[in-house]
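Can anyone check this?
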Amino acid sequence: MINIITIKGPASYKEKAVLETQQNVNLIYGLNGAGKSTFSEFLRNYRDEKYNECSIEPKINEEEEEILVYNEHYVDEVFYESSKQKGIFSLSKENNAAKKIIDIAKERCQKISENILKEQKLFSITQQEWGKQYNGYVERVWGVQREYSGGDRVLDYCLTGYKRSKEVLFSYLSSLPKPLVKPDYTIDMLKNQVRLLEAAAATPIERLSEVISQVTEIENDSIFQDVITGNKDSYVAALINELQNSDWVKEGLSFQSKDVCPFCQRPYDDGGIIDELTAFFDRSYESAINKLRDLYAKYADFEKTLLPNAAFDNIEIICDIKREYQQAYSNYVGAIRENVKRIANKIKNPSSVMTLLPTDEILQKLNGVIHKANERIFLFNEKVRNKKIELDKIKSLFWKYIRYEYDQTILDYTIGYKDIENKRKQHNATIDRLREQLEEQKRIIAEQQMNVINIEESIQRINSLLQNIGIDNIIIRKVDDEEMYTIAREEESEITFKTLSEGERTIISVLYFIETCKGLIDKDSFYKKRIVVFDDPISSLSTQYLFAIGRIISDTFYPNIKKNYETGQLVVEPKIEQLFILTHSLYFLYEMTAMKKEHRDVFQKLFRIFKSSTGSQIEQMHYEHIQSDYHSYWMAIKDRTTPVLWANCMRNIIEYFFNFVEKRDLNNVFQQLTDPKYQAFKRFINRESHSLGQNIYDFKEFNYEVFLDAFKLVFYENGYQNHFDKMMKIG
């Protein structure tokens, strides 16, 4: 059963129009041009790609159900394109045994189909539950996009191709293998690498210079181990050496004066003592001291060149080893400064034995840190030169990190997916088994149908109905040795469909279609659940025939209504899956409407197709809305959105009313319209009522207000003001 029909796109359906129903019988009213034909043609040919914006819910299960549509296209295909019609195979009542087997097989088919539907619904629920779980996993992973994509987020490029679809992102992440170990890097580290690459552009970073020692030879000079003293031949040498105060004596000489001894501060007894002391510090002594002073100067100058390298503050890729560098630098500079002090002390105390700190090893450690920094700079420069490759490497590292972080989510999904796939396999196996059972029952039906189907009964029924309707000069005949029908007049040869009157063509095509809905066109086919659609089956029929066709349709397709006396509720027993009847006639609509409200409520629903400024629309009708055709014409005039219908409606209203009330000719009614502005109105309704609204927009004198005034004037001038006001609901 169809629950929802949605139409958008074809013909006048500019916007989406929706029909919703749960009922077995659906009546749809609409004036000509409102969109009924498009509606029925969509149901007849719903697979056509031109209806790709239209839909039927639930979808038609073509293995078990079919839509049969009576409309102009059906009549053209079946009757106008061929002088013979395919035979309709109906079940004969003569072979009761075969009929019983068929009935049992049909019941089994029904039960199997119900089991298939039940299994599909159960699995559908399982799929829905899995869908919720899956959406949860997808939403969780979508957090990657929210966190790393957009704005100034440097890792945004890693998500290229995965930023617009949650499902695509999830599918990609779940396809990646889990890293064997936890990544030893962080997202922040990756961000920094990207920033550095982007900031550096194509400019390499200069290598750092290592420190070259200029004092190794000084540190190894043997002079620091020498005891530097004066001339041993001086008579004061023995005393100085004994006292080991040569450094004190040397320093004291710098304070000598002519009269007072710098050591004892007494007048000289013998002026020769100073000369002896001076002679003690001979040329070799001075030479040694001068060498020490020279070594000191060189060492001190080297110390001044040892400035800290600012690169460890300014270059981001090595800033993490800044402390290591600072410690190595501090150790080296400290050793150099200590040696400067020691050399100065040696100069001050030449006779002392001194050892300088060896700095080569300390320097080696300092240069080791600088070497480490240069290795990073080298690798970075290589990255700069191969920026795209490096960005791709960072991207790969990014996804490895994300895959590891979301491993639990992926694991939960994998387990759930395997479970649903196992259930899907079980479901498919069950469905396949049930369908095999269904095909077996269909085979049984097909075999037994060969014993009971015939085309004669359909011929008899159509001819009998023609007689009952009052058409006794036309019959349907079986073509000799063919499973085909032909139309003939009694006692005459076959005739063509085109030679029949319009009313006769309508009646015969409708009766044939009804038999088609009851039987089979192909004797090897299988009875399916049928959704039957009639589009204006009473077109061009007189009231007599209209009533007869209406009775035949209702007797054939309307459900049986029974009352459950235990519950007091009405029970609907459908004869077919569903019925849709479209008509432009309110009279026919009224005839097809169930009279009892309780019956209408359980099996019937009414709709209206109308055309507005936005195109054709569908709305529900109520029984109280059904009025005569006369009232519908007034409704169309009041609807300013359907100008294409006004000409016919105005003409019909004037004709119906004045012919009924005064038996006046149409032209006589217009005698009061002498104002020139109303002449267009007279031409308009006469012209357009015969062209069915075609080329309306080419009529350049059209003006709704003027035409409505003219229409109003016809009634006012003829004394029917109250009637006009009532119908227009004025005042």
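Reply from J.R.: I decoded it. The radius of gyration is 55 Å.
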